[in-house]
Amino acid sequence: MINLRIPGPTPLPPEVLAALGTQMISHRSSEYRELHAEVAAGVGQFFQTKNDVFLFTSSGTGAMEAAVVNTLSPGDKALGISIGTFGDRFMDVVKAHGIDLTVLTFPMGNAADPVKVADAYAKMPDCKAILITHNETSTAIANDLVAITQAVRVHGNPLFLVDAVSSMGNVDIPVDTLGLDVVFTSSQKAWMTPPGLAMVSVSPKAWEAYKTAQCRRYYFDFGHMKKYHQKHETPETPAVAALFALRAALRVMLGKGVAETFLYYRELADYTRKRLTDAGFQLFGDQSHASNTVTACLLPAGASDEDFRGILKKQYGVVVSGGMGDMKGKIFRVAHMGWVSREDIDQAVGAMEKVRDDKGTVR
Ligand SMILES: Cc1ncc(COP(=O)(O)O)c(C=O)c1O
Q1: Whether residues 336 and 270 fall in one domain
Q2: What predicted TM-score, i.e. pTM, was given to this entire model?
Q3: Does any ligand 1 atom lie closer than 6 A to the CB of residue 138?
Q4: Which of 78, 134, 277, 352 would suit a FRET pair with 320, their CA atoms being 20 to 30 Å apart?
């Protein structure tokens, strides 16, 4: 048995595996419209929003691009916040579209400082948007969206474009209460669903920005999407199988309850961190901003990334992720999002202790 503890794709529960065996249907049929409506409404409950939540057949990066091209024009000023590799990717997407981007970077392992974000924004009178990653999967650090939005709004009212790819669904991010304008996530993370769907919410303020946004777009055009979404369809052929899977996953998640789901992952994150520290592993990064869906640890002293993760997989069936960017070869990351129990964490940590103490090499 493989214990897949990477931050996506995450394991699929039996209900979802069963749903993947469903025969195809026409995507222009009443059955499809029922499927689409149920999925969009279910996802919206976890986003805690009244906004439309679009279902794009895409990975998370497509939604990242959609957030940018539907709200901004080349030459617009924007402030981008990066605390790691996925923040950097968001910035690359913005730059690719000719936005006049100011980037505020925080060292890996840190969250963005709300005061510094607000100060940087205050110095940019024409800044249209702030782009930020909620849960930086590369370092297992989460930004404090409550503190950041509050600090910024003392100075003005920019659009907030938020990457919640690896947190939405498992973590409490009340989109409407926080006034977040475009928020996106993808199916292979918290949602216990195969890769293939990106879910994107669009606020009334984002729709205002859409009216004047000049970035080139076709597939990811929100207006194009909305025309079909209103009748519970998509303009192009959707990933029907992924929708079957997401519907099954949502039924499981909603069966547990939205608040109960958030609590489950908060407690599981605490449990994981405690198990790891009790076992003698050193957690990486500012633990006051530790992610509730993934945990990063320093590699044990003297262990190479290849050996540690290689033996873990080969001998114990535990698959964890390595570091990314500057953290490559320095940390490993254990995911606790989606379909995961305390027993999965116990087995993973137990195996890690054995691998560390055996000090073997991959054979
Ligand atoms: C925070 C974050 N943003 C964006 C992405 C990119 O998502 P995708 O691989 O679905 O394009 C990831 C993927 O791990 C992520 O964790």
Answers
A1: yes
A2: 0.98
A3: no
A4: 134
pLDDT grade, residue 26 (50/70/90)?
very high
363 lies in some domain: no
Q: Are 199 and 297 found together in one domain?
A: no
Task: Verify that 198 and 300 share a domain, yes or no.
Answer: no
Q: Are residue 134 and residue 262 in the same domain, yes or no?
A: no
Q: Give how many domains the chain has, as a whole number.
A: 2
> Model confidence at 363, in pLDDT bands (50, 70, 90)?
low
CA of 71 to the centre of ligand 1 (A): 20
CB atoms within 10 A of CB 19: 21
- Helix, strand, or coil (residue 359): coil
Give the HSE-up count for residue 181: Cα atoms under 13 Å, Cβ half-sphere.
26
Q: 208 lies in a domain?
A: yes
Mutation to probe ligand 1, out of 133, 165, 327 (largest number of atoms < 8 A from CB): 165
pLDDT tens per residue across span 66-124 = 999 999 999 999 999 999 999 999 999 999 999 999 999 999 999 999 999 999 999 99
- For residue 134, the ligand 1 atom closest to its alpha carbon is 1
Ligand 1 in contact with 59 (CB < 6 A)? yes
Same domain, 128 and 239: yes
* Same domain assignment for residues 247 and 263: no
232, 279: one domain: no
Q: What is the mean pLDDT of residues 233-242?
A: 98
Q: What's the domain range around 38?
A: 14-254
The residue among 221, 254, 287 that closes a domain is 254
Torsion sign over Cα 301, 303, 309, 311: negative
Q: Which residue has the higher pLDDT, 315 or 1?
A: 315
Residue 322, token pair as written in the block: 């390595």
CA distance 269 to 267: 5
Q: Would you say residue 291 has pLDDT above 80?
A: yes
Q: Are residues 274 and 235 in the same domain?
A: no
* For residue 332, pLDDT beyond 90: yes
- Does residue 8 line the site of ligand 1, with CB under 6 A? yes
How far, in Å, from the CA of 358 to the mean position of ligand 1?
34
- What separation, in Å, do the N-terminal and C-terminal C-alpha atoms of the chain show? 20
User: How is residue 314 annotated by DSSP?
Assistant: H
Mean pLDDT of 22-31: 98
**Tokens describing residue 98:** 């000719």
